[in-house]
Design goal:
The complex is a heterodimer. Chain A is mainly β. Helices cover 0% and strands 50% of the residues of chain A. Chain A has no helices and eleven strands. In chain A, the strands form two sheets. In chain A, strands 2, 4, 5, 6, 9, 10 and 11 form a seven-stranded mixed sheet that branches. A four-stranded antiparallel sheet of chain A has the order 1-3-8-7, with no helix packed on it. Chain B is globular, with a radius of gyration of 13 Å.
């Protein structure tokens, strides 16, 4: 499967714990995006990278969230001191440089208890 | 401010009936608009982009700048069209701004 992959697919954690998600984009795609989707809503943009540079962050990305893409390949999204409001599906997408078409991964569903 | 509005949360039609999924947007400039679809237990996938003028799976969408709309149309709905449909607006940084989605249910 050469599509976007995300791990883990599901994560259950207790409030206050830290969690980290990983995204592996399509190999030739320079751009990588993170979105969050809650029940009844469309995906909401969090942040994106061009290669290893993080070029834009949404106001939704609080100080507890951090994303990296150290070598311009895979990316990680970390949430520190999780809160129940962080429960959501976290989606990763990738795209060729200069292209609007984004290819999405299956998502990581986070449940904070 | 950029905004995408999909006024219908749920749309139910009979097989063979025409379908129109509504999408309105607000954007100052030339919009890049898309329809994405998510079938049950599958990932979000691109259905069409407004500038491609392609018809994929029998669906079309016309950008109407006067009415700021980008409605999705299909002349004859099939049961396999049942899915969640999202309209999305691309911004200058290529991030997508999604609507809340419309769940389409096609019944036999």
């Amino acid at each position: 499967d050469t599509g976007v992959s995300q791990n883990p697919r599901h994560k259950i954690t207790k409030r206050g714990q830290n969690v980290t998600f990983r995204c592996d984009p399509i190999s030739e795609h320079n751009r990588l995006y993170w979105y969050r989707q809650t029940l009844g809503q469309g995906p909401e943009f969090l942040t994106y990278f061009q290669n290893e540079a993080q070029l834009e962050k949404s106001r939704l990305l609080s100080d507890r969230f951090s994303a990296e893409r150290p070598k311009g390949s895979f990316s990680t999204l970390e949430i520190q001191r999780t809160e129940q409001g962080d429960s959501a599906m976290y989606l990763c997408a990738s795209a060729r440089d200069g292209a609007y078409e984004q290819y999405f991964g299956p998502g990581t569903r986070l449940t904070v208890t | 401010a950029q905004r995408v509005t999909q006024p219908e949360k749920l749309l139910s039609v009979f097989k063979g009936a025409p379908v129109e999924l509504k999408c309105n947007y607000s954007y100052s400039g030339s919009p890049e608009l898309f329809w994405y679809v998510q079938y049950s237990r599958q990932r979000l996938q691109l259905l069409l982009r407004h500038i491609s003028r392609e018809s994929i799976k029998g669906v079309t969408a016309d950008l109407n700048k006067g009415e700021t709309s980008f409605h999705l149309k299909k002349p004859f709905a099939q049961e396999e069209d049942s899915a969640m449909y999202y309209c999305a607006l691309g911004d200058s940084g290529y991030a997508l701004n999604f609507g809340k989605g419309t769940s389409l249910l096609v019944t036999p």
